[in-house]
Amino acid sequence: MYRKKISIYLLDYTCYKPPSFYRLPMSMFVEHILLHEQFDPNSVAFQIKILEKSGFSEETCIPPTLSQLPIKKSLSFNKDEATTVIFTVVKEVLETNNVNPKAIDILIINSSLFSPTPSLSAMVINKFRMRSNIMSFNLSGMGCSAGIISLGLANDLLRVHRNSLALVVSSEILSQNWYTGKDRSMLLTNCLFRMGGAAILMSSRDQDKKKAKYMLQNLVRTNRAEDDLSYACVFQEVDNENKVGVSISKNVMNVAGEALKANMVMLGPMVLPLTEQFQYGLSTMFQKMKILSKKSIHIPDFRKGFEHFCIHAGGRAVILAIEKSLKLRKEDVEASKMTLHRFGNTSSSSIWYELSYIEAKGRMREGDRIWQIAFGSGFKCNSAVWKCVCNIKPEKTNPWMDTIDSYPVDLPDTLEIL
């Protein structure tokens, strides 16, 4: 029996834009750690050095609880941040698209380090009075790549439950995760992570085809947790003083590179023209025959498969390493660099700020293909491929609209540290 192929559409999405009074300018960060009694001089100097070389603007934001001294951590503060970010983006995406909360069939929320009871998904269902038979899921501990994992789950469910609407929310809650110890690998998170979140509305309903912005083409997930080095390179643990933090290993760049290679091997045949696949296969064969060295292997030109790249804004070293390894142009990584500059590392939601940047610049055209790449603890590298199905005009709700004319800004690559 013939079954019609199911298309998965992205109807719309919104990104959280913190109010200006949540800003964390450099001067405030320095004053904050200098006055914080639990930081020793070496920890203070290290954090200042990291932030100076991060490429962040004066506009990145943190929740207000982290700007107070002394810092007080509590479950109520975590919930306040979660409700502020998540409720805002959910309300905005539903109202903008005139969607009744009761019309949502599937709800998926990912937040790596904050997983309360009742869950964040239950919190949203309660707030917006969603249906009692809604299929809800709450993903935790999946790191910065969890956003694409959520997309994968939504994709699978939408294909099984035809003619359905799915709401995906990606965020990370910072209030509980400020580290006050001396371990440098854990101090990095204070400097890199900032406040953000995104809500994505997806559909498998035929009637939504004309309203959609994008259509999902491919999803590829790579998990290297079987390797001990990969498993331990981003790890939540306690330090020598029994303080909880998330350590980022010095091996993270090498681990990310290996994960990306494995992901590209699976993704390449799905998106690259046959000529690129042939050249890569031929050079790999010659390398195995020792006719070519490893450095001589043909690197596929992924620009022949995509018009736009949204590389997880985990740090400038991550972006620059991918730019170099894939032989991308400066303009190909512009959205990622500018997102890191304006919003910082917003974890799993960063790829949506990058897509918003491309739209705000008026560069998205019907037929364009987009590659979203995310990395996360475990270690994971995940890819999502979208095709634009209409000419997209910038919207008022785009988080870049008030500053887009001042971008791009010049960010010297010599400032890189992580």
Automatic annotation (TrEMBL):
EC number assigned by the record: 2.3.1.-
Residues annotated as domain Beta-ketoacyl-[acyl-carrier-protein] synthase III C-terminal: 307-387
Pathway annotation from the record: Lipid metabolism; fatty acid biosynthesis
FAE domain ranges (all copies): 3-288
Name of protein: 3-ketoacyl-CoA synthase
Keywords: Acyltransferase, Transferase
A GO molecular-function descriptor: fatty acid elongase activity
Superkingdom to which the source organism belongs: Eukaryota
Cited Pfam families: ACP_syn_III_C, FAE1_CUT1_RppA
Cross-referenced Gene3D superfamilies: 3.40.47.10
Reaction catalyzed: a very-long-chain acyl-CoA + malonyl-CoA + H(+) = a very-long-chain 3-oxoacyl-CoA + CO2 + CoA
